[in-house]
Design brief:
about 850 residues, alpha+beta, Methanol Dehydrogenase, Chain A, 5-stranded mixed β-sheet, 4-stranded antiparallel β-sheet
């Protein structure tokens, strides 16, 4: 059939509408392309936009030349994409996806254009393009960015390595990282690679605690004897029957909502059992100076057992085993493990106030979000100081309390190293000093606690920091738990203005060297580097190199000329380029390209700059590795690390402009302050506020500017730092443009918060990603063997235990407002079918 006359073609509304859409697309690309060229970026968008505009105008006029212009743009775009993107699938999506889809419509309207082809030929072309589009869409479900497994796997060893530092029954999980060595490894092997596909829900418990705003429980329960112990989002302490999940008791310390910081997070609690006999006294104030007399904590007695002789002063009989937690309003609370009643001999009525001696503390400014660490009978706690509010925020002082009496044993204030207790009358601990908001690890034998330190108050301005702060900020500090004095420290960032504070525990391992096996620790970091240090001295066991760092920014004299780089292993990817910018369509990708080209970016450690300019920080402040940490299988000699791979888009805002915008500290803001960390933080008492676009999202789509993946999971050989396998982690099912969940099980690699638990069954159990899935992964291959959909986000680290011959996997599904996962209050236990499980704790399987 011949095409109709041009006059009738011009009257067709669908063809006119398509032409208008192409004109608008062309104008957007042409205008944006000119802006990109002016910023020094790609020349493609400008001529492509002009050509599309011509195409659209001709289509509106019913001219076949409009289709030919469109096909020319489509072919040129395909050639340009191949040149710029190679075989990287995710780069092709924004470059060609929309063009192919519009090409189908152009083909369908061709018969209505003057001198256009026949309907049959046009429909055949549309069918070909449709097949291409569907095939390209189907390719999204294929795995990308997968490495390995490569090379021989490490050989399993008989020794359990550093996990022997925290003796406990194989069936238990007695500390946040299972032990204070923070390995997150269970020797249980009942659930293994052969039967994990039959896992089913054994029980579900709901805490009943779900804040209306800023939700996110992040809890990893403990298991001791026949009970589980956990805390809810707002610090309600709960004990469950380990077999059934039935609630035994709960204790509510009544934390006001006004004290919730960025997130209502309680990551875990601590367990402490008094020694059972006079021959093993707990370290008290009288014996604290003699480390050799301090007893190593062993497998504890059953909670609530009868009091025996030798009970230390201040320990009431019903608190021989106790649960200790830190609260969001800055208290340490101790309750009886059997009944949940406050331990009367601990502090005042079962609690102590850690803010005493800090001076003025506004609600939500000082919060304990992580489980305290107990070494030699001393409860060591740091606390979160709300970031970005004011330079002279409350102190980051580290405190050690007697686990029995709650008496303050010592306090470490880096600016007053001569103070050992509370400040002298009329004085306060130094304000604005670096804090430890995350969890410490500990070595009972050495009497050391390892503190992952944060930054000084206000992360993005450094001029007002003291020499002491510059020495200890963003460092791992080993404190002598007897005296509270530093034994050594290792700094991972000099003069930190990127919020690269250490978020993860250091994991204690036995590390092979040419001089034999050394007591070591593996320290992950937000910038991706992993450091291997002698845990006795802090000396690197694998070289750390000082490499040149970018200069400039608003404080050029403050920037360190070099920064430390580990030669052991890094999770960090190569520096960003304009080609890494992404979007669903060419338009949002173009916007990201313009932002990238206009931003100040010199690669890793680019200093922040002031309004109206932005800087790009990559990796962003969520890692690399954040508070989920790493997990270590000491028998196989394998590290498992899940990580984030996203930039931040940062701008310092001059004080006058910030004041005009009404950016004030959160305790001065009426109503719900909202916002993610760094998003409009005032940094009062400095020349600049800061506005951090975390993950670098576009305002109008909500999508991230960097191409996928945004998160991954990796297996690393402990002895060498060699990557065994690496793959994107997290599906796009709950992600999509404009906040609309796509529902697609595409392994795009999502942001993730939370860590992994490993077992002798050769499994990695992990949730953490934004897809609300919990997975079992084969530690040797990275293959997902089992998964289940959680009723809320799983931004927590799971744990594994056994009771009555049955092994359980437990995860807190509480969701997270910042990760945009559904809120919940679920504690879920999985196990093999009751008639299928063997005796737990059998011989570990390789």
């Amino acid at each position: 059939m011949n095409a109709p006359p041009a006059s009738s073609a011009r009257a067709h509304p669908w063809r006119a509408l398509l032409g208008l859409v192409i004109v608008l697309l062309g104008l957007a690309l042409a205008i944006g392309g000119a802006m990109l060229v002016a910023a020094g970026g790609s020349w493609y968008y400008l001529p492509a936009g002009i050509a599309l505009t011509v195409s659209g105008v001709l289509l509106m006029r019913g001219r076949m030349a409009g289709a030919w212009w469109y096909w020319a743009v489509l072919v040129a775009t395909a050639l340009w994409s191949a040149w710029e993107s190679g075989l990287d699938y995710w780069r092709w999506v924004p470059r060609l996806g929309l063009f192919v889809l519009l090409g189908i419509l152009v083909a369908l309207v061709q018969p209505r254009l003057a001198d256009g082809p026949s309907r049959g030929r046009s429909w055949a072309l549309a069918a070909v393009l449709g097949v291409v589009f569907l095939a390209a869409f189907a390719l999204a479900f294929a795995p990308y960015g997968v490495t390995g497994p490569s090379g021989p796997l490490p050989q399993a060893r008989a020794a359990a390595g550093a996990s022997s530092l925290t003796p406990q029954a194989d069936a238990d999980w007695v500390a946040y990282g299972r032990g204070y060595d923070a390995l997150r490894y269970s020797p249980l092997a009942q659930i293994d690679r052969g039967n994990v596909r039959t896992l089913e829900r054994a029980w579900t418990y709901r805490t009943g605690d779900l804040p209306e705003h800023r939700w996110g429980a992040e809890t990893t329960p403990l298991k001791v004897g026949d009970a589980l112990y956990l805390c809810s989002a707002r610090n309600i302490l709960i004990a469950l029957d380990a077999r059934t999940g039935r609630e035994r008791w709960r204790y509510d310390p009544k934390v006001p909502d006004a004290n919730i910081p960025y997130t209502a997070a309680c990551r875990g609690v601590s367990y402490y059992a008094l020694p059972a006999a006079p021959a093993q006294p707990a370290a008290t104030a009288a014996t604290a100076g003699n480390a050799s007399n301090a007893a190593v904590t062993t497998a504890p007695p059953a909670p609530g057992s009868a009091q025996t002789a030798g009970t230390p002063a201040g320990a009431n009989a019903d608190c021989r085993a106790r649960i200790i937690e830190g609260t969001l309003d800055g208290r340490l609370v101790a309750v009886d493990a059997a009944s949940g009643r406050p331990c009367a001999g601990f502090g005042r009525g079962g609690q102590v106030d850690i803010t005493v001696g800090m001076g003025e503390v506004s609600p939500a400014m000082v919060s304990i979000t992580s489980a305290p660490t107990i070494v030699r009978g001393v409860v060591v706690t740091g606390h979160q100081v709300l970031d970005g509010q004011r330079r002279w925020a409350p102190s980051g002082v580290i405190q050690g309390y007697d686990a029995v009496t709650g008496e303050l044993r010592w306090a470490w204030d880096m600016k007053h190293p001569d103070w050992s207790g509370r400040p002298p009358q009329g004085q306060a601990w130094a304000r604005g000093t670096p804090n430890m908001w995350t969890t410490a690890s500990g070595d009972e034998a050495l009497g050391l606690v390892y503190l992952p330190m944060g930054n000084s108050a206000v992360d993005y301005w450094s001029t007002l920091r003291s020499p002491e702060e510059n020495r200890y900020a963003t460092s791992l500090v080993a404190l002598d738990v007897t005296t509270g004095k530093p034994r050594w420290h290792f700094q991972t960032v000099h003069m930190d203005v990127w919020d690269y504070d250490l978020g993860a525990q250091a994991s204690l391992v036995d590390f092979p060297t040419r001089d034999g096996v050394m007591p070591a620790l593996v320290l992950p970091s937000k910038q991706g580097d992993m450091y291997v240090l002698d845990r006795r001295t802090g000396a690197p066991l694998v070289a750390v190199e000082e490499r040149p760092a970018p200069a400039g920014g608003v404080e050029p004299a403050q920037r360190a000329k070099t920064q430390p780089h580990s030669t052991y292993h890094t999770l960090r990817k190569r520096d960003l380029t304009e080609r890494d910018m992404w979007g669903i369509t060419p338009i949002d990708q173009l916007v990201c390209r313009i932002q990238f080209r206009r931003a100040h970016y010199q690669g890793f450690y680019t200093p922040p700059v002031a309004h109206p300019a932005h800087s790009v920080e990559y990796p962003g402040y969520n890692g690399g590795t954040d508070w989920g940490g790493i997990a270590v299988d000491p028998r196989r000699g394998i590290i498992i690390a899940n990580y984030n791979d996203m930039p931040n888009y940062v701008q310092l805002v001059p004080r006058a402009l910030a004041d005009k915008l009404g950016w004030a500290p959160r305790d001065q803001v009426r109503g719900e302050p909202g916002g993610a960390e760094g998003a409009g933080d005032p940094q009062a008492q400095t020349p600049y506020a800061v506005d951090v676009n975390a993950g670098w999202r576009l305002d109008f789509t909500g999508l991230l500017c960097k191409q996928p993946p945004y998160g991954g999971i990796r297996a690393i050989e402990l002895a060498t730092g060699r990557t065994l396998w690496d793959r994107p982690f997290g599906e796009a099912r709950n992600n999509g443009p404009f906040g609309i969940s796509s529902g697609l099980p595409i392994e795009i690699g999502t942001p993730n918060n939370g860590g992994a638990a490993l077992t002798a069954g050769g499994l990695v159990f992990i949730a953490a990603a934004t897809d609300n899935l919990i997975r079992a992964i084969d530690i040797d291959t990275g293959e997902t063997l089992w998964r289940d959909v959680l009723p809320a986000g799983g931004q927590a680290t799971p744990m594994v235990y056994a009771i009555a011959g049955r092994e359980y996997l437990v995860i807190m599904a509480g969701g997270h407002h910042f990760m945009e996962t559904p809120e919940g209050d679920y504690v879920i236990a999985y196990a093999l079918p009751e008639n299928a499980h063997a005796v737990a704790g059998g011989a570990p399987k390789r």
